[in-house]
Design a protein that fits this description.
Layout: H1 2-21, H2 26-29, H3 32-43, H4 52-62, H5 67-78, E1 85-87, E2 90-92, H6 97-106, E3 112-114, E4 119-120, H7 121-126, H8 131-135, H9 137-155, H10 159-167, H11 174-199
Antiparallel strand pairs: 1-2, 1-3, 3-4
Length: 200
């Protein structure tokens, strides 16, 4: 009998240790509290509007990121076009937010990316955010910054995190993920060099 209790005790302790140290699973990651926190974070920008250049600096500061990495992603993803869409691999450049929303309404079942940071519909569904809100330039940059911060915290400061911004995980389409990271990092380095030379 005591051996049975010792075995049971070890199993219980092992399970607790496993749950404490193994990365949380997808269901726990996107709990209701977690969703609410992200929604509130995105809503921070709903008041005062600021122009795009200071916007990257402000949002980068909020998420402890360098503005150059956000700008590099926006440049690569949308060419700084706030209404840019990508619907299942097809890039579309509407003239206005209303036009972008009309295009999305016709393609609402499909996977799509929206705005400056090309935030994927996966994230909008996870956090119960509307496409209209995600197309707002300020909120789009803020949501993109949150996703990047999440990837950096999860995968570390390396190409895997940058690639995960694009593919969801560095293990999804690893070649594509790495190629994306290389292109973004090239843009980032140029922007960083320019910023540093301007400070001199």
């Amino acid at each position: 009998m005591p051996r049975f209790l010792i075995a049971l005790y070890l199993i219980v302790c092992g399970t607790i240790a496993f749950l404490m140290f193994i990365p949380i699973n997808e269901e726990r990651e996107f709990s209701q509290t977690f969703r609410h926190d992200v929604q509130q974070r995105v809503k921070l920008g709903s008041g005062q509007r600021i122009s795009v250049a200071p916007l990257f600096n402000q949002v980068a500061q909020e998420f402890a990121l360098q503005p150059e990495i956000l700008r590099a992603i926006a440049d690569h993803e949308s060419g700084y076009n706030p209404w840019a869409l990508n619907i299942e691999g097809q890039s579309i450049y509407p003239e206005s937010k209303d036009e972008a929303l009309a295009v999305l309404k016709k393609n609402k079942i499909k996977s799509y990316d929206v705005g400056l940071m090309q935030v994927n519909s996966y994230w909008l569904r996870k956090f119960n955010l509307s496409a209209a809100k995600a197309l707002d330039p300020e909120e789009n940059v803020r949501l993109g910054a949150w996703i990047l911060r999440y990837c950096l915290d999860r995968y570390g400061y390396n190409w895997r995190a940058i690639g995960a911004y694009h593919t969801g995980s560095p293990d999804n389409l690893p070649e594509r993920s790495k190629k994306y990271a290389v292109r973004v990092m090239e843009k980032y380095k140029k922007l960083l060099d320019k910023s540093q030379s301007n400070k001199k």
